[in-house]
Structures are given as structure tokens and as C-alpha cells.
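>> received
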Amino acid sequence: MKTIDQLIDEVIAREGDFSDHPADRGGPTRFGITEQVARANGYTGDMKVFPRDRALAIYRSTYWTRPAFDQVASVSALVAAELFDTGVNMGVSVAAGFLQRALNVLNRGAVDYPDLKADGQIGPVTIYALRQFVAKRGAAGAVVLVKALDALQGERYIALAESRPANKAFVYGWLSGRLGQAA
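>> returned
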């Protein structure tokens, strides 16, 4: 399975260098890090020269460690990689909420583990449920869980484009895995 460094490198490769697409609400972006996220992490300079090492640090802290996707990786690297990807593009609480919702519908009516509160925060209860799910369903179950996460992500992309037509410029790229790039 891929390491967090590999996952970050893949995101940066998809996102590219500097972008300031007129339809992108994120505004100026470099290496996939929006100006708002850069500012929230202490960067005050021009986004055109935002350093790659700062992007790496933000991806690791904001999109991996803080939302506990690193803890998910200790149970299923496949699921953690999907959450990281979704978290970068939609926000980590959205990704965590998707995990909780998917685990709830895959627990066989709370037979395998109790339903989770879908609060978008991964803590010990969510990790426990994931451990129980993987113990019961194995590697094949993790693949099914990722399919459920992909389905939730895809539905959200379509809803975003339906509610804001300017987002249609990005849907093909979002669905093809080229996060945020107009096709």
C-alpha cells in the first residue's frame, strides 16, 4: 500500500503548480493548497511562490494526522488513502462523515457493531467500528467500503454541479481523479 508521502506526491501531481481558475471558489491555489488554507496555516506570501515544503507539511498535518486518517491507515491503508483523497477535495469532515455513513449501512443492522453518529470526526468509536468491519469482512470488505465512499463522493460532485453550474467545469476532472482540474 502507498505511504502518506506517496499519496501527497500523487495529489500534487494531479493538482499541478499554480492555478487561479475563474470558476474555482478556492481562488489562487498552488500544489492543490488554496490560499485560504495556506493563510490558515500561517503563510502570508504570494500564492504563486507558495513553497512545496509548506504544502507537504499542510497535507500531512491538516489532511492526514489531524483528522485521524493515519489511525484509519493502521486498520486499512486502502480506506485511508480514499479518505485522504476525498478530504483534500471536499474537506476532512466530509470524508470522515462519508466513512461513518458507509460503516452504518454496512454493519448489518448493528449486528457487527453499533451505528455511529455521523459527526465527521474520527475518534475511538469510529476506529472500533472500522476494525470490526475489517475483521468481519476482510480485504474484500475494504474494497466494498471504498466503493461506498466513492459513491457518496460522486453523488456530492453531481449535486455541487447541479446547484452551481460553474462547477460543471470541474466534474469530469473530479470524477476521473484529476482533482479540481478543468477538463
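>> The radius of gyration is 17 Å.
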